[in-house]
UniProtKB/TrEMBL annotation:
GO terms for molecular function: 4 iron, 4 sulfur cluster binding; oxidoreductase activity. Coiled coil: none annotated. This is LUD domain-containing protein. PANTHER family: LACTATE UTILIZATION PROTEIN B. Keywords: 4Fe-4S, Electron transport, Iron, Iron-sulfur, Metal-binding, Repeat, Transport. The lineage of its organism: Archaea, Methanobacteriati, Methanobacteriota, Stenosarchaea group, Halobacteria. Pfam families: Fer4_8, LUD_dom. SUPFAM superfamilies: alpha-helical ferredoxin (SSF46548), NagB/RpiA/CoA transferase-like (SSF100950). Residues 379-406 form the 4Fe-4S ferredoxin-type domain.
Length: 761
């Protein structure tokens, strides 16, 4: 499957923004807001999430044993378990069950075609069960309202939980009016759902076989758990004489008691409900009697005779899952409970939905792992770059899956699967990365942005003039995919490191800090190494200078050494080997300072996030822990100093009610570092108001890329609308500030610039 070109991808995204974006954003953002409220109202949330993850880890570890266990339990109850190797195997087995049942008992409906009713199941979407059964002469009817709408429309799901999320009520009404030609046109949601209920009830009554998925399968009892809001799944399970449940092998959990945290979490994380409308637990074949709808006067009786009339088949699907289990990087994907929280929390998904941010079956952040595991890397490659690594999904996931890392690893594998280009020899040996040939030139450029920035700074302002020239912008768009509509950073001739050395370096900083401590009668026994990230060192040096002046004013001496890159840029492009080397080099350069007890203070939140999150996978455990425990975001550091006796009057302060609108960087929120900045602003006499927008949309290199420009702006405009009209707007992240400055056409400083001595609103 050939990947789309940049222009094709840009056209695709533009089309989705225009046709589906409004409906997707309305529902997905509402689900996410509800989830946040539900999570906030759950006192033991973190304990539940930790417990759920632990159960899934244990279940995947024990998976072969659990398969044997559930087989014994289901067979002891009178059912059958079939483990399907792949999609074709599963489809053939289900088709055989349907034909066997109808041959033995006759066709239940008035026609001569075997019929099946289904509840919503992403696993059956994965194996294209409907098409396979139809090709085998079996009629299939979806009974979930959203899935049935898509079946009528011959469309595909755009969301794991809300499959028809991309369609508005008026579009559905138009579809139904055209397809069913009612006496009175459908106009209201009530009329549509009443018609659907009656139509689907007739099909359920006449079905030969009912097919469901399973949210969870309890291994020791064979209990199937179905979580729905419509009740259709339980009807499909118990109305026809034969019930087939199809589930991935990862849905197995050991015991009934293990269900508790999942039942508590799944509705909260999916839609923000305290609990789903219907939680059905069956240990089929069930004791419920078969029903004779043709003879409603016949008494309904239960007992052994009724039980023997029923047939149950549990189809457990492998389809690459065992290989995922053995893959250290993809294994976490199997912990997924298919709640869709990662999709709802993702700003990019909220704009384009699963038809853009998804593969053959799965959508949203976790889709990269699923698609790579069950359909192959080519499917994942179609949308993988839509994950910007913002990490908003990390706090949303009920089982704490590190979804951004899975996306990074798959991106790395996709990069390495590309064939070297004929021109690769031009950069081989000239770039400092550790990547093989075949890497997309745009990714290689952004992954080596530190080298680019150093060269551009050394040749500024000429480099800035050249970069803004129309012919150069056209060349950059054609070769590197950098959209010509996006303003480029202006590189400073004097880097932050050079500025710091020219003003006297560490010795002069120590003198300034000592003098400030005497003047304010404070005694803060701390020393700081300020990390000069690429942007702070070569582009926005003002925020770095503000950080230095602020720390010195609070009595803390500062060093600003010339340090290696953190690896954040390389990670964003899926260049894991390069990031690994950069992380090791940075740790080695800081080891002596860590030994001396100095704090490492970081201005750019994404670099701090690399040190606090991804370095766990790149450095030895002890090295990672030392750097994590000694590194701080700049406003977090200032907060700590003020809490320990530093005098805020040494900084630029407000009158106690000075309004400031503050946008926190995505990864800063994931690290729980929004609160310290708010507290510092309040302590210094400002009245901060925070934004609720999930993301700025710029996301480092993402917003520069031609194929994603419209999407980046769509996300950014939602944020700009929130802050438009505010007197003062500050933003913690590089990307956030750049995006807002472009949209608002005004300066958007870092909060530390507002606090630094001498700043005036």
């Amino acid at each position: 499957m050939a990947q789309r070109t940049r222009s094709q991808q840009a056209d695709r995204i533009r089309h989705l923004l225009e046709t589906e974006g409004e409906a997707i954003h309305a529902t997905a953002s509402d689900f996410d807001a509800n989830r946040q409220r539900a999570y906030g109202a759950t006192d033991d949330l973190e304990a539940l999430r930790t417990e759920a993850r632990s159960i899934k880890e244990d279940a995947i570890d024990r998976l072969p044993d659990l398969i044997d266990m559930v087989r014994d339990a289901v067979e002891a109850n009178g059912g059958t378990v079939y483990v399907a190797d792949d999609a074709a195997d599963a489809n053939a087995y289900v088709a055989d069950v349907v034909h066997t049942e109808t041959e033995e008992h006759g066709i239940a409906g008035s026609g001569d075609t075997p019929s099946v009713v289904k509840s919503k199941s992403m696993t059956t979407e994965e194996i294209d069960l409907n098409d396979a059964l139809a090709a085998d002469g079996i009629e299939v009817t979806e009974t979930d309202l959203g899935e049935w709408v898509l079946q009528v429309a011959d469309d595909t799901p755009s969301h794991i939980v809300g499959p028809a999320m991309h369609l508005s009520r008026s579009e559905i009404a138009e579809l139904f009016n055209e397809r069913f030609d009612p006496d009175e046109p459908f106009e209201t949601a009530e009329a549509l759902t009443r018609f659907a209920r009656d139509y689907l009830a007739d099909h359920i009554q006449e079905a030969d076989v009912g097919i469901t998925g399973a949210n969870f399968v309890v291994a020791d009892s064979g209990t199937i758990t179905l979580v729905t809001n419509e009740g259709n799944a339980r009807k499909c399970a118990v109305t026809p004489d034969t019930h087939v449940a199809i589930a991935g092998i990862e849905k197995l959990i050991p015991t009934l008691s293990d269900l508790e945290p999942f039942v508590d979490l799944i509705a909260k994380s999916a839609t923000g409900q305290s609990i789903a409308q219907y939680v059905t637990m069956l240990s089929p074949p069930t004791d419920s009697p078969t029903l004779d709808f043709d003879d409603p006067e016949e008494p309904i009786t239960a007992g052994d005779e009724a039980k023997t009339d029923r047939d149950f088949h549990l189809v457990l699907l492998n389809n690459g899952r065992m290989d995922m289990r053995e893959d250290d990087q993809l294994r976490e994907t199997l912990y997924c409970i298919r709640c869709g929280a990662c999709s709802n929390s993702c700003a990019n998904f909220q704009s384009v939905g699963g038809h853009g941010f998804g593969g053959e079956t799965y959508s949203g952040g976790i889709a990269t792992g699923w698609e790579a595991g069950v359909h192959g890397q080519e499917s994942a490659a179609e949308f993988n770059d839509l994950c910007t690594g913002c990490s908003r999904c990390v706090d949303a996931c009920p089982v704490k899956i590190d979804i951004p890392w899975i996306n990074t690893v798959v991106r790395d594998r996709i990069n390495r699967s590309e064939e070297p280009a004929a021109t690769d020899f031009l950069v081989d040996g000239l770039t400092p990365d550790m990547e093989d040939g075949g890497l997309d030139p745009g990714k290689r450029f952004f992954g080596n942005i530190g080298t680019v920035a150093k060269a551009a700074s050394a040749t500024a302002p000429v480099s800035n003039w050249l970069a803004d020239a129309d012919p150069v912008r056209g060349l950059l768009e054609r070769t590197l995919g950098i959209d010509r509509r996006r303003d480029l950073p202006a590189f400073q001739r004097e880097s932050l490191v050079d500025w710091f050395e020219k003003r006297g370096g560490e010795a002069a900083s120590s003198r300034r800090a000592s003098r400030a401590a005497r003047d304010t009668s404070t005694d803060i026994d701390r020393e700081v190494v300020l990390y000069p990230d690429v942007y702070t060192n070569y582009v926005d040096t003002d925020r770095g200078k503000a950080a230095v002046r602020t720390l010195e004013a609070l009595g803390v001496p500062v060093q600003v050494p010339d340090l290696p890159e953190s690896g954040r840029a390389a990670l964003s492009q899926g260049m894991v080997a390069t990031a690994d080397r950069q992380a090791s080099r940075l740790y080695a350069a800081l080891a002596e300072d860590l030994d001396a007890g100095r704090d490492v203070v970081v201005v750019e939140p994404s670099d701090l996030a690399a040190m606090h999150r991804e370095y766990e996978r790149l450095l030895p455990e002890r090295s990672f822990e030392r750097l994590r425990d000694s590194s701080y975001e700049i406003c977090e550091c200032v907060y700590g100093l003020l809490e320990n006796g530093a005098d805020p009057s040494a900084l630029s302060t407000g009158d106690g009610a000075e309004p400031v609108t503050y946008h926190s960087h995505c990864q800063q929120r994931t690290l729980d570092l929004e609160a310290p900045t708010i507290a510092v602003l309040e302590r210094c006499g400002y009245a901060p108001e925070t934004t609720s927008a999930e993301c700025c949309g710029m996301a480092g290199s993402f917003g520069y890329k031609h194929e994603y420009y419209e999407l980046s702006m769509d996300v950014g405009e939602r944020l700009a609308e929130q802050v438009d009209g505010a007197k003062t707007v500050v933003a913690s992240g590089t990307s956030c500030g750049d995006q807002l400055e472009g949209l608002l056409e005004r300066d958007v400083p870092h909060p530390i610039e507002l606090l630094a001595p001498g700043y005036r609103l």
